[in-house]
Amino acid sequence: MAGIGVIFNPRSGHNLRDPRASRRLARTLGDHGEVREAGSLDQLYRVAEDFRRLGIDVLGISGGDGTNGVAITGFLDVYQGSALPQIAFLRGGTMNTVANSVGVRRGPPEGLLNRLVRAYVARAAQPLKDAPRHVMRLRGDKARPLPNQEASTPPLAEKYGFLFGTGVVYGFLSEYYRGGPPNPVVAAKTLLRGVGSAVIRGETIRRMAAPFRGSVELEDGTVWEERDYLAIAGGTIDQIGLNFRPFHRYAERPGAFHLLGIHSSPVSFVSQLPRIWRASPMKPGHSYDATPLQAMIRSPKKNIQYMVDGDLHECDGPLHVSVGPKVRIVVGT
After folding, report:
1. Which part of the chain is the DAGKc domain (predicted)?
2. What's the CA gap between 108 and 310, in Å, rounded?
3. How far apart are CA 238 and CA 241, in angstroms?
4. pLDDT for residue 266
5. Which residues of 12-36 are buried (b: 16+ CB within 10 A; e: fewer)?
6. Domain limits of the chain?
7. Cβ-count burial of 129 within 10 angstroms (0-12 exposed, 13-18 middle, 19+ buried)?
8. 3-class SS at 244?
9. Does the chain have fewer CB atoms within 10 Å around its N or its C terminus?
10. Widest pairwise Cα distance in the chain
11. Distance separating alpha carbons of residues 290 and 234, to the nearest angstrom
C-alpha cells in the first residue's frame, strides 16, 4: 500500500483534549492511507513495522515536538538505514517548534492532513515539496524511563531530535510542565516568571537555572573546559521555542549542528534574549560557539539530565551528540 500513514498520539496535548480527533483524521484521509494510534513505544514499533511493510510514501505525525522526535527515533530504528518516507508534521501537540522553524503551515491537524491529501493526489504533476533537515543522534549510558513511560517498555538507548539542551533548557521545561496543562500561554508566563526571578535573584530562577557542571569535547579536539554552564545546547534548526532563535548557524556547515556552551549568569543571559530572538549572536563573553559534527558532553556527576525536542530525559554520562540521518519534512501544502 503506497499512500499516507498517519501516527496519532492520543497523549499529546491537543489530542488529549479532543478524543474525536483520531476519527476526524481517518475520515479526512479516506482511502489514501491509514491512521494508527501509538500511545507507547511498543505500539509505535508495531506501527513502524507495518508501515514499512506497506511501503507508505508519506509519514504523517499528529502530535507535537516530543511525538515527532520519538516517532522519528522509532522509525529510524525499524528502517535500519533505509531512507524514511517524507514526513508531514500535522501538529496536534503543545509544542510545535520544529514545524514552525521549517515553515510548516499553521492549522488544526485535520486541516493540514486535508491539504496533504490533495497535494498527494496531485503529486504526479506537482511533487510534494520538502525541507531536508538532519536530526541529531544522542546516546548516553543506562537511559532511564520517562515518568509517563510504561514500566514494561525499556527507554530507547539512542534518541534522535532537532534540539537538545542541558541546564536551564532542562530546567525551564521542568518548570513549564509544573505550571498546569502546557500551552503557549503557560510557556510565556514561565519565561516571564523566570526573567523576573532572575532580576531579583529569586527561588524560581535558582530552580530553573541550576547550572550544568561539565565539559565538552568536539571532534576536532577542541575542549570547552569543565565549569558551570547555564546550558549546553544545540540544534539542527534555528528556533528553540517562543520564536527565540539561538541556533542561527545551524545551516552554516553542511551536515553539522550549532552548539552553544552558555556560561553567563542568569541575569546576564536575560540581557541577551533580545539578540537571541533576532537570531543574532550573543555578545562576547557569554558563550562558546561551534558547528561540530559530533560532541561529547561529560559531567563529574554520574547523572546527566537533558531535553530532546521538548521531552525530558536522564542518562549516565558521558552524553554523545552527533549528526544523524537527513529527513525530508513536507512543507508548502
Report:
1. 1-142
2. 20
3. 10
4. 85
5. bbbbeeeeebbeebbebbeebbbbb
6. 4-134, 163-308
7. middle
8. strand
9. N
10. 60
11. 9
C-alpha–C-alpha distance, residues 287 and 308, integer Å? 21
Distance, CA of 155 to CA of 168 (rounded, Å): 23
CATH topology of domain 4-134: Rossmann fold (3.40.50)
Q: Nearest CA to 214 among 323, 137, 309, 140? A: 140
pLDDT, tens only, 241-257: 888 999 999 999 999 99
Least confident of 63-72, 174-183, 200-209: 200-209
The pair phi, psi for residue 73, each rounded to 5°, is: -60, -50
Q: What is the pLDDT of residue 284?
A: 94
Question: Which residues lie below 8 Å from residue 324, measured CB to CB, with a gap of 6+?
Answer: 76, 134, 135, 136, 137, 160
Which distant-in-sequence residues (6+ apart) come within 8 Å of 186 by Cβ? Answer: 176, 179, 180
CATH number for domain 163-308, candidates 2.60.200.40, 3.40.250.10, 3.40.50.720, 2.60.120.10 = 2.60.200.40
Residue 159 CA neighbour count, 13 Å, CB half: 34
φ/ψ of 283, rounded to 5, equals: -65, 155
DSSP character at residue 174: H
- Give residue for cell 538507548: 157
Identify the DSSP state of 9: -
pLDDT reported for residue 242: 83
**pLDDT one-digit tens code per residue, 269-328:** 989 999 999 999 999 999 999 999 999 999 998 889 999 998 889 998 899 999 999 999
Identity at 267, one-letter amino acid code: V
Higher pLDDT, residue 220 or 155? 220
Which H helix or E strand runs over 168? helix 168-178
Rounded distance between C-alpha atoms, residue 237 and residue 246, angstroms: 9
**Cis before 127? omega within 30:** no
